[in-house]
Amino acid sequence: MEKNECIYLYTRFERFWHWAQALLVLILILTGLEIHGTYSLLGFETAFSVHNFCAWTWLVLYVFILFWMAITEEWKQYIPTFQKLFAVMWYYVYGIFKGDPHPVPKTARVKHNPLQRLTYLGIVSFLVPFQLITGYLYYYYNAWPQLGWDWALRPVALLHTAGGFAMLVFLIVHVYMTTTGHSLSAHIKSMFTGWEEVEDTAGHEWEVKS
Length: 210
Prior knowledge:
- It is a single chain.
- The chain has 7 helices and 2 strands.
- By secondary structure, it is mostly helical.
- The protein has one domain (about 5-200): Fumarate Reductase Cytochrome B subunit (Up-down Bundle).
- It has a two-stranded antiparallel sheet with strand order 1-2.
- Helix 1 (about 10-35) runs antiparallel to helix 2, helix 1 crosses helix 6 (about 155-175) and helix 4 packs antiparallel against helix 6.
- The two termini are about 35 Å apart.
């Protein structure tokens, strides 16, 4: 029988920005769809105002998150690696359904496995900035002529929409992955309490090699 231990994995601010981002992204997706005429709930003007408010709020939060990562050195949790990457991928494709142990169990020093590192790094360093930049270009469309930009609006709008759907796909996959713990709600619960039950890794903790 596997021996587990309960460790404090996520700080208060870490949990706060996780849920704050989740809420902001969800509202941005819903209001973005309404702005595009997919459905009508708040009305165009209200949806537009809420969407812009959440976008500015996300930008401020994003800056605070980057600052927090820098001063706490939590950025090291996102250093990409290919070590055991295929083992982790095989685990989620096949091993998890057999009840195999995770090839890279969580620890306080290594919260994210190689697949998560690559995914989160891509989200933080590419997708989020991409959405913010295309969104603000879209928002300040009327100022383009003053800046000498003779661009068409449609490509920017399509790029921003494509980024929104990419974020939606990530959100769906992320929610699914939260159900792959030792119980369906274990990972979600840990993001409320900060504590998570993990495998006892004494003597065989996995670390990223430089």
